[in-house]
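Pair request: fold both.
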Amino acid sequence: MNILQRYITRQILFTLVVSVAVFSTILLAGDAIKQLLDLFSAGQVPTLLVMKQMLYLVPFVLTFSLPMGMMTACLLVFGRLSADNEISAMRACGQSFWQLIAPVLVLGFLLSLVCLWFNLVEAPQLKTAFKESLARLGLSYPTAFMEQGRFSSELPGYLIYHRSREGSHIKDVNIYQLDSKARVIQKIRAKEGEIVPEVDDRRINILLRAVRSEVHDPEDPNNPAKIRPGIMADNYQLAMDVSQMLDKSKKRDTNLMTFRELVSLIVDMRRLGLKQSAYSVYVVRTHKQWVVSFACLAFAMMGIPFGIRAHRRETSIGVALALALAFTYYFFVTMAEAFSNKPHLMPEMLIWLPNLAFQVLGLLLLWRISRVGAV
């Protein structure tokens, strides 16, 4: 690698790191992370546990932020080099255009392999681990997931409202027990209470004080004429079984299966003699894991010529163009995935079209640029 290649590579790497950090932060700012940050700021859950939860999502986020960061880096760096006529100067010194961009394309390919490992193995496993860990965290620190002044449905079968809390103690408590159709079958009001988790028994106890309740008819719970008085006590313990919530978190969503698990599922379904329409969606998902992994290379091949032709050094223009191209790419991937239940349209082939289009168009633009004497 000569001096000019090292110069361009350093510029790309620096911009790539900054771009990936920015996009990762934006992508991480979802509901799950917001909830974890709320727990952290409230001091309900130890800091190390919150950080561990966030780390579970990093590989999943990187599968999107790495390609977007690669395109942004190519657009910004080559846009600035073109605007300052540095590429023209390099080529005037006898440097081949393909030699200049070769390290960038190699970097795009290597990042695609990293994304491939994340998509096929790490991201599905860690996203599943995140769901399971979040459920266990909810059992160990139940009050941390109950926002005061609002109804909470975190515990299955119950709606819980409390006006204020101090640690595990809650005040002005209203608990609505629901049936399988989400209808209220019992209302419990208490002046205050204390939430005591029993992790080993997969149960949460709420010790209530100054309790009053009313019971609804289980056959006709919405009929006010059939409501009758219930518990009236100074102290009352309500035991909530959360084993269903924990078991639900352990169920493997097919969207979060590794490549090997998806292939095994497809083979089993074929062995049972099922029609192709029954497992077509899983076939498309295996292809999608490969397709989006090589977005890094496709984005690099598009970012370089678009950056040069844009001939702009403004960061805002480069970022806007990167977002527009990324949106176009993922839009067509999503559209192709939408046909996964129609195997006669060969959706597993359609989903490769965005990659193919970006790479062919990118190669064509790069070839045209390499043919001119100056850019």
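--- second member of the pair ---
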Amino acid sequence: MVDAPVLRIAFFGTPEFAVPTLHALLRSRHPVVAVVSQPDRPKGRGRHVASTPVKAVAAGAHIPVLQPERLKDAPFREAFSALQPDLGVVAAYGKILPEWLIGIPRLGMINVHASLLPRYRGAAPIQRALMAGERETGVTIMRIVKELDAGPMFARVAREVAPDATGADVNRDLATAGAPLLVAVVDAIAEGRAHEEPQDETLASYAAKITPEDSEIRWNRPAWEIHNQVRALGSADSAWTRIDGARVLILRTAVEDAQQAGVPGEIVEARRDSLRVATPRGVLRILELKPADRRAMSARDFLAGHPLPPGTRLT
């Protein structure tokens, strides 16, 4: 479409979740005039400073990158205002945007949010949805307003959540699903045919940021709740317990004998590749774990070097 209207886009994003959306915009007819990403941080065991995933893509496409430590800093405010963007697009940037910033793009700012709004507004929608055992989630493209994730919605797409899907699995799926949806909304805004639907405030819920307290396994909960905690947190915030007093990360689990009750945290079997732990409702099988200062390993490898008699309690 030769005469299709074109919008100058300012893109805000930081982690891998935002990369498919940035790639989709770069393939669209709308020029990305700048990318705003979080400052580079030390990563890995060597603590080497690494570019954010979004910055790496922008650099490869020769797009200017702004990485303010604070959005209120005058140099950033001046630089962003000078861009004169038509529309701001946000995908997991990682900071709450101030009103002055939201007001700079001529057509406002829109966001790729990883939940079916109005449910799971906030910082950790994927993790909180998995921890709650949700069987469906999705992506919403919404307008950014002053109140967190409360703006009207342009489009939504739903995705089924498999019982054993991890936070990483869902993150990848929603990032992939959100990218073309976002471009379709940008096209609709450019052409003046976008429809905005207000959120139903009576259905709103909040997905609070993951804290260290969310990672500790409490064995007085049903096996399926602990399993959901483990798969939601994955390797980034890893659920953990203590085995013989030592802290161990639990990376992958399965629920067995869902109705069986036992002494919470007591090992009922620990041989070969079977490490099974009782809960008040159900038995949790630990499939993969990571002791402190060691690599991730299977239950079989762990038990080969750390035999555990039945009756041992995890705390």
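Observation on the second member. The chain is about 25% helix and 25% strand.
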